């Protein structure tokens, strides 16, 4: 394994960089999209609720790889050309946003309904109450599951390997077929993934315990 | 466009795709049964805190849980031959899924057991049952009830994750759709619609089941 790092260190680090870049971009956008759809689902607007429900169910129940391949194969044919990295990041964002929406919604649900009633009784509109009263309280409950979603996001970013996204998994494959030392190559890739995911997992478990 | 759909959904193509769905379900069901058994054993060992053993198993579970499934698929299909074992595609896929899902289920089992009121075990012990009898007859049946919705949810992600095994050429739905539209590029959109709908129906029905079970419990 050490000789793999010596011989292919640069390639592996480049892959790690791409994996992190894709994960962070997807996290930011799926947080925005996910929170938006969670709020839409909790809103008093019936039409908005239906739209949010459909969005969440569709992206939760279709495999990530099918979504990613859609953007990699179908989109360039009819809409716009995009490289594997972009297609993979878009797929990852849409897929994760559905899970984040569910997480945020559960967080909102865990806030005592009396909070909303109190805010409304004091003259705040629904959206003001959400923004100033409910969301700040929900946020606290939502952090550990969101952290776990981020771990899933990093792991799922390995689908970029299918579409030539030059991420860690992709580079691991290249190294495995170049060096013919498949086990050492995959073990090196595994170690690099664990360096990102394990600390987050453990920290989230610690936060969960502290909250409980 | 309509003609493309009619052409793409010819009886032969549909038959071929449904065969892929069969492989998806076969791999998923065998893996979930295997990982339920292995995951329960691992989860119980992690819960009962056997000196050293539980700690080591805990570390192994955490490591595998935090790796991408694709990496484990590559490992079982391309890595194992280097160790002298050469599994066929379907067993390799089932092996990878079972390894990965066992660790997920181990966590579900452990938190399910932890969610049972500790008074249950104390009561069992006070009534003369041994620790293992208390675990088996009193705690585990209650824990199983709490775990079932989470296990169904895990099964949904397992069904979706079988699509990743296209990378080791498992002939499931996604792989077969690629073969069909590889022969005629006009069929790309119909094929994506077909597999998206098929995955959606299977996973949505399962998620309705999970929600029903969760409600029944509350």
TrEMBL record, chain A:
It is a multi-pass membrane protein. It is found in: Cell membrane. InterPro entries: AA_ABC_transptr_permease_3TM, ArtM/GltK/GlnP/TcyL/YhdX-like, MetI-like, MetI-like_sf. Gene3D superfamilies: MetI-like (1.10.3720.10). Residues 16-204 form the ABC transmembrane type-1 domain. PROSITE patterns: ABC_TM1. Its main location: membrane. The chain crosses the membrane at residues 12-40, 61-80, 183-204. Keywords: Cell membrane, Membrane, Transmembrane, Transmembrane helix, Transport. Belongs to the binding-protein-dependent transport system permease family. This is Amino acid ABC transporter permease. It comes from Levilactobacillus tongjiangensis.
């Amino acid at each position: 394994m050490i000789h793999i790092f010596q011989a292919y260190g640069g390639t592996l680090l480049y892959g790690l960089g791409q994996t992190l870049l894709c994960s962070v971009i997807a996290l930011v956008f799926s947080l925005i999209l996910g929170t938006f759809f969670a709020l839409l689902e909790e809103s008093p607007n019936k039409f908005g609720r239906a739209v949010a429900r459909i969005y969440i169910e569709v992206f939760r129940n279709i495999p990530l790889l099918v979504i990613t391949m859609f953007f990699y194969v179908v989109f360039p044919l009819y809409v716009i050309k995009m490289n594997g990295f972009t297609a993979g990041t878009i797929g990852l964002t849409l897929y994760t946003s559905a899970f984040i929406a569910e997480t945020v919604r559960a967080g909102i649900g865990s806030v005592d309904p009396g909070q909303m009633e109190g805010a409304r009784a004091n003259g705040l509109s629904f959206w003001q109450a959400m923004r100033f009263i409910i969301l700040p309280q929900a946020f606290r409950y939502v952090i550990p599951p969101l952290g776990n979603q981020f771990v899933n996001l990093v792991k799922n970013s390995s689908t970029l390997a299918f579409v030539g996204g030059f991420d860690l998994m992709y580079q691991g494959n290249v190294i495995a077929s170049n060096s013919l030392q498949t086990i050492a190559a995959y073990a090196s890739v595994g170690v690099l993934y664990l360096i990102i995911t394990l600390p987050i997992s453990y920290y989230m478990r610690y936060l969960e315990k502290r909250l409980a | 466009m309509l003609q493309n759909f009619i052409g793409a959904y010819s009886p032969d193509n549909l038959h071929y795709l449904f065969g892929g769905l069969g492989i998806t379900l076969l791999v998923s069901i065998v893996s979930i049964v295997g990982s339920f058994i292995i995951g329960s054993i691992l989860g119980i060992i992690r819960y009962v805190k056997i000196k050293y053993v539980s700690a080591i198993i805990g570390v192994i579970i955490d490591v595998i849980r935090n790796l991408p499934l694709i990496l484990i698929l590559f490992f079982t299909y391309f890595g194992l031959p280097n160790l002298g074992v050469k599994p066929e595609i379907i067993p390799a896929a089932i092996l990878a899924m079972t390894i990965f899902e066992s660790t997920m289920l181990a966590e579900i089992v452990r938190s399910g057991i932890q969610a049972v009121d500790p008074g249950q075990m104390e009561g069992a012990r006070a009534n003369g049952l041994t620790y293992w009898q208390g675990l088996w007859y009193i705690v585990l049946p209650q824990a199983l009830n709490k775990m079932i919705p989470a296990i169904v949810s895990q099964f949904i992600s397992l069904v979706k994750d079988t699509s990743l095994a296209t990378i080791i050429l498992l002939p499931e739905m996604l792989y077969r759709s690629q073969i069909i539209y590889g022969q005629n590029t006009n069929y790309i959109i119909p094929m994506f619609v077909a597999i998206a709908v098929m995955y959606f129906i299977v996973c949505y029905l399962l998620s309705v089941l999970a929600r029903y079970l969760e409600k029944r419990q509350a």
